[in-house]
Amino acid sequence: MSAIHQEDLERYVNKNIDSFHASRLRKLSETKLNDLLRRKNPYLFRAKDINTAGDLVKELLSAVLSASEEKFMGDFLEGLAIFLVGSLYNGQKSSSQGIDLEFTKDNVRYLVSVKSGPNWSNSSSYKQQVTDFHTAQKVIRQAGLQGQIETVLGICYSSKATSYRNGVMHLHGQAFWNLLTGDANFYTQIVKPIGYRAKEHNDAFEHERSRLLNVFTQQFMNDFCIDGVIDWERVVRFNSGNMA
Question: CB atoms < 10 A from the CB of 177, how many?
Fold first, then answer.
């Protein structure tokens, strides 16, 4: 196995991190106030005693963007993982449902599902993931592979210890990136190139976010405030009313 040189890592990240930032900006441009109000729990924000239109709009937007950014970064890290196994083991993105990448290392065939963080699943989604692993194993066996097959749930960040559950290896953080690269320090080496042009990208993002907050706040005050006071009943009706 050859090693990934820092220059190759930086070249890949610098080229592809733009897609993360572009996705963030695109999410902003596609966001509508009405969508924010319908997607989030109005009772939660009322219980937090939010009484200023600007504060409410900011919390709504932040909640939606945070979930989106986690997904966008997960997509980026999945792409990085595929790049690594392709470079080191001639691995590839998997065509099997629920499996992100496949590669052979030390005569073991690895089937890997990449997750951004540890809180990715509920009981039903985890059960489906295990089913997908078992199906992929069966297909590979039917294709004639006789060697060892290892199914791996790869969590990009988390300090949890390695474990097995339902025949699936759970690798978190450092241990996951070490499996892909053979380098126990690789997980820290990713940080530097990810910061490439970060300030430039985030200045553009913050400019657009600030503009959108002003637009949404004005719209919210026009539609959901009476004499400058939030009409929470109107907010709840808009969010949950369906019997008119």
Answer: 26
Of the candidates 27, 34, 11, 79, which has an alpha carbon nearest to the alpha carbon of residue 224?
34
pTM of the entire predicted model: 0.81
- Pair of tokens at residue 188: 């820290």
Domain range for 97 is: 6-240
Q: What's the token pair of residue 79? A: 């792409």
pLDDT digits (tens, 9 = 90+) for 51-64: 999 999 999 999 88
Q: Is residue 1 part of a domain?
A: no
Question: Which structure tokens are listed for 20?
Answer: 């993360």
- Region class of 6: left (phi > 0), else alpha (psi between -120 and 50), else beta: alpha
Give the pLDDT of residue 74: 86
Domain count, the chain: 1
Residue 37 lies in a domain: yes
Closest to 65 (Cα-Cα) out of 23, 125, 101, 93: 23
* 28: nearest Cα among 202, 238, 218, 239: 202
Q: Mean pLDDT over residues 104-129, rounded?
A: 92
Helix or strand run (H / E) with residue 163: strand 163-165
Phi, psi (deg, nearest 5) at residue 95: -95, -5
| pLDDT for residue 2 | 57
